[in-house]
Design the sequence.
């Protein structure tokens, strides 16, 4: 666990399921869908969470992209509640998740080489893009609107290459 300005950053576990699923109320069609989707992430420690006064204030979810021998992981979700933004918590969640990813790849005899993510190309995502770029992610390509699940805007594919 990492403590930072009164905020604890640690893996979200199945024991945290009540506060975790509360935060996703309204995002999925039902609690059952959210549970079905998140079960393996929580079981495997693929969710990093930020807590303040026992309240979940930020989350980063990642997943290995198939076998560890490929060396590629993907960040699939990152958010910090509005009142707690711009205090460095998003950056700390990325740092924590990168450490968990490295340990996971090591555990199965491989090494994390790249981390990918998709994010919107519009103004709405400019903060997220600034954060990713500050952390060393680079744009690889643009995904045109409405070609994957990006119904409303173009997306960028970002990749972070880890030094070998
Ligand atoms: C993106 C998000 C997670 C960042 O969380 P955060 O805790 O505010 O991030 P940090 O405080 O660690 O910010 C780190 C860096 O991001 C950039 N940044 C953060 N807020 C910014 C803002 N309002 N404007 C411009 N740059 C900003 C800066 O480079 C900042 O570093 P600095 O404060 O040293 O200048 C948060 O804004 C969020 O939840 N946004 C809505 C959800 C979202 O867009 N998620 C990403 C989807 S892919």
Sequence:
């Amino acid at each position: 666990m990492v403590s930072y300005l009164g905020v604890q950053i640690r893996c979200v576990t199945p024991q945290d399921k009540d506060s975790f699923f509360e935060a996703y109320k309204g995002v999925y069609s039902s609690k059952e869908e959210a549970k079905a989707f998140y079960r393996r992430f929580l079981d495997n420690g693929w969710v990093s969470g930020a807590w303040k006064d026992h309240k979940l204030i930020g989350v980063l979810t990642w997943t290995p992209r198939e076998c560890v021998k490929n060396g590629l992981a993907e960040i699939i979700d990152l958010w910090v509640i509005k009142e707690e933004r711009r205090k460095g918590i998003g950056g700390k969640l990325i740092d924590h998740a990168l450490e968990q990813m490295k340990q996971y790849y090591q555990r199965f005899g491989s090494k994390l080489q790249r981390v990918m993510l998709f994010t919107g190309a519009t103004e709405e995502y400019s903060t997220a893009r600034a954060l990713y770029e500050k952390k060393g992610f680079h744009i690889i390509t643009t995904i045109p609107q409405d070609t994957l699940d990006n119904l409303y805007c173009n997306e960028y594919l970002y990749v972070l290459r880890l030094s070998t």
